[in-house]
Amino acid sequence: MVTDPIADLLTRIRNAHMAGHDKLDVPSSKLKQAVVRILKEEGYIKNFKVVEAKGKHPVVRVYLKYDNHGKPVINGLARVSRPGRRVYCGKDNMPKVLNGLGISILTTNKGIMGNRKASALGIGGEILCNVW
C-alpha cells in the first residue's frame, strides 16, 4: 500500500525519464488521472489512457514526451504538499514556478487544475506539486 500516491506517480515519471522509457504504467485512481490529464493539457506528456486488464486493477498508461535531441520535456517534478505537511495558497498568492515557465498543480473546490486556470477563476487551494 502506497501512503502518498502523488509522490509515487511523480517518482515513477522521474525514473522512467531517467531510464529513457517511452511509456510507463501506474495503478489507476481518479486523482492520478486528473494529475496526468493536466500534464497532457500543459504539454509535458504526449498522451495517457486507462488500461483495464481482465481481473486486474486498471492502470494509467502514460506516454512520455521528449524533445528533438532526446531530452525529456519535464526537467523537474517536486511534491509540495505532503501528508505530513499540507501547503495551501490563496487566490492572491498563487505560486509561480520558474517565473511562469513551469506549472503548479492544485486541488481546489472546483477540482484539480493548474495554477494558471485557478488564477483565472480566482480560487486557491492545496498545492499538490510543481512541474518544470
Verbal overview:
- By secondary structure, this protein is of the alpha+beta class.
- It is 26% helix and 30% strand.
- The chain has helices at 5-19, 30-41, 115-121, and strands at 23-27, 45-51, 59-64, 77-79, 88-89, 103-108, 111-114, 125-131.
- Strands 4, 5, 6, 7 and 8 form a five-stranded antiparallel beta sheet that branches. Strands 1-3-2 form a three-stranded antiparallel beta sheet, covered by helices on one side.
- Strand 6 (103-108) and strand 7 form a beta hairpin.
- The longest helix has 15 residues, at 5-19.
- The two termini are 28 Å apart.
- 23% of the residues are buried.
Summarize the structure.
The chain has 132 residues and is an alpha+beta fold. The chain has helices at 5-19, 30-41, 115-121; strands at 23-27, 45-51, 59-64, 77-79, 88-89, 103-108, 111-114, 125-131. Strands 4, 5, 6, 7 and 8 form a five-stranded antiparallel beta sheet that branches. Strands 1-3-2 form a three-stranded antiparallel beta sheet, covered by helices on one side.
Offer a few descriptive terms.
single chain; 132 residues
Number of helices: 3
Instruction: State the helicity in percent bands.
Output: 25-40%
Let me know the largest β-sheet: 5 strands, antiparallel
Unreliable parts: none
Structural category is alpha+beta
Query: What general form does the structure show?
Result: globular
- Spatial gap, N to C terminus: 28 Å
Number of strands: 8
Strand content: 25-35%
Topology:
Elements: H1 5-19, E1 23-27, H2 30-41, E2 45-51, E3 59-64, E4 77-79, E5 88-89, E6 103-108, E7 111-114, H3 115-121, E8 125-131
Antiparallel strand pairs: 1-3, 2-3, 4-8, 5-8, 6-7, 6-8
